[in-house]
Design goal:
Order of helices and strands: HEEHEEEEHEE
Helix content: 10-25%
Structural class: alpha+beta
Radius of gyration: 20 Å
Largest sheet: 5 strands, antiparallel
Low-confidence stretches: 1-22
Shape: globular
Number of helices: 3
Oligomer: single chain
Distance between the termini: 68 Å
């Protein structure tokens, strides 16, 4: 009986670190600097290159939120597993819920990516925009 109890305690002690590491306890806090105080800042969070770059099925965002641009624009994503993430955001200045574009498909509303990454003839790619998250991670993103 004592051997069985000892084996159970040993198994529990060796499993405890694995359980602690699998907890979804990371947090991302994003502060956006905008040029206008109207409308909403629309934010999408991604956890893979395929989803971020659009090569997967559907949109693939793991979380979305919209924050009023009338004051300080801060978004928080809680209870995330540690890993790599990237953000796409745009400032919906006119409040229609869409990223407006001109007839050539170029955005007419301000937009941004995590790491303040910029694209080359298109949106920023995962390799420029992703960042590691473990615990609390914060970024300030300029929407231009």
């Amino acid at each position: 009986m004592i051997r069985l109890a000892s084996a159970a305690v040993a198994l529990l002690l060796t499993a405890a670190p694995a359980l602690a590491q699998s907890a979804d306890d990371s947090r991302i806090v994003l502060t956006f600097e905008t040029g206008a105080r109207t409308g909403m800042v629309m934010i999408a969070l991604y956890d893979s290159a395929g989803a971020f770059d659009g090569s997967g099925a559907g949109d693939g965002a793991v979380a979305r939120t919209a924050i009023s641009a009338s004051g300080r624009v801060v978004a928080a994503f809680d209870n995330l597993p540690a890993g790599d993430y990237a953000v796409k955001a745009f400032h919906d200045v006119n409040g229609d819920g869409e990223m407006n574009t001109n007839p050539f498909g170029m955005p007419t509303e301000p937009y941004a990516f995590s790491n303040n990454a910029v694209g080359n003839m298109g949106p920023a790619r995962w390799d420029r925009a992703h960042f590691a998250v473990s615990g609390e991670t914060a970024q300030t993103i300029n929407i231009r």
